[in-house]
Structures are given as structure tokens and as C-alpha cells.
Amino acid sequence: EGGVELPLVSTGSAGCGKAALLANWVNRRRKTKHRDEFLFQHFVGCSPRSKQLSHLLYRLESALKDRFQLREMEVPTSEERLRWSLNRFLAAAAKKQFPARIVIVIDNVNGLLGESSAADTLHWLPTELPPCVRFIVSTLEFEKYSSDPDEVTEHNTRVHRTYMELKRRKCPYVRLEPLTVDTRHAIIGAFMRDNQQALQIDQAQQFKIVTAKPSSQPMFLRTILHALVLGVEMSDVSIDEQIDTYLAAETSANLISRIFDLCA
Prior knowledge:
With about 260 residues, the chain is an alpha/beta fold. It has helices at about 20-30, 55-65, 80-95, 160-170, 180-195, 205-210, 220-235, 240-245, 250-264, and strands spanning about 10, 40-45, 100-105, 135-140, 140-145, 155-160, 175. The longest helix is centred in the first third of the chain and has 18 residues, at about 80-95.
């Protein structure tokens, strides 16, 4: 309360659980937050429109206007004016209710698309925030630049500009690390207990899953477990064959494509 804080950044590789972390935190926060707290969330990529910077800013400024009764202020419609007016809306909201409690959560901030090619440089996010305003964002640390979108190696990735900008601003960050083998075993065990009637995986099959590199990503591991349940119901392919097929996908997007192919 009353302090000025830099944005808090959650980072990690694609599929490491950044969106799940923020979504669960927001759900819990809504149950325990102060009654005067303004809590805004935006998940970039949940719909085509959600990727547009102008849509995010219009949603945020409209919500600030309604919540803090900023009747004298008009929400612009153009992206350029929305960018320039963001700090005015934040400052006006902070003054309207002191101490204000404004928390803005934006997942996958690196995926925002602006009218200019510099959208991922965070030119729209004020470098100086009013007191009591806290941004919590997630971003990829690295991005691909290979001509082959399915090929990712240490030689064809580079630090994402959004991450570089947040580091330049000296924002505090939390990096989500890949799941350990023990954690993967625990997740599979919990899943098996909840789905005893639908799926049985023996020790050798579990070992094959937990030692595969893609299963270090929570999204991939969760998807493959649900895919096996679906495969048992809809396919005659053995569980071993399904596991081999799914683990060859390496990314969650490719995994989903293989699941559709198997069940078609």
C-alpha cells in the first residue's frame, strides 16, 4: 500500500505452466482479496482477439473507468491513443481511491500484437507506475527464429525482446523450471488414482513417460495422460504404441495433432 513496485515477471519455456500458475493465483486471490482491490486479468492467446494490444488496452482502461467512476475520462479507440492514455487512467484511478489496490495480471505478454512491429518491446507499458499499481506478467524467455517452426535447438533460439526489456527495467522475476522426474511420477500417480477405471499404466510405461524430455513440461504431461484415456476409449492401438507416438511429438501443439490423427 502506497508503494511503487516494478512488474513481477513469471518466465520459463513454452508449456512450463506460466498460464496455469497465474490462473490459479487469480482464482485464489479473488476469494481472499480486499474488497476494494481492483483485480484485472488478461490471457493473451485464449482467443484471436486477445492477442491484439488495442483490445487489451481498451478492456483495461474501460474496466478502470467503470470501477473507479472516471466519468470525465473517455476511453480512446485507436491503439496509439490507448497507449498514451494508459498511465493517465492508472494515475486517475490511484488518486480516486487512496490507497488504491490495483493488480493487473497479463499472461503471455510476449504474444501481444500491435499495429507497429515493436509491440513486443513493451513500449505501451509505462516505465513509471503510480503508487499501489502492480503488474504481474508472464513471458517466454527465449523465442524461435528458425525457418522450421518444429525444430528448436540451442542454436536457433534467442532471448525474447519482451524478456530483455523487463530485465532491463530490473523487474523481479520467478522462473518456472522443468518438472523433475520425481514430480512427474507424483503427477502420474495422482492422475492414475483419479482415473482408475479408465486407464492403467504399468511401471515400464510410466518410466518411459517420465524419462522423456517433453514430459518435463506440465502441459505436455497432462495432455498425454488425457490422450491415453481417450485412446483407450476410441482406438484399438495399444498403450505402448500410443505412448511411443505421443512422445515423438516433442511439443504440446504437435502432440494434439497426433492425438487427432490417432482418433480419426
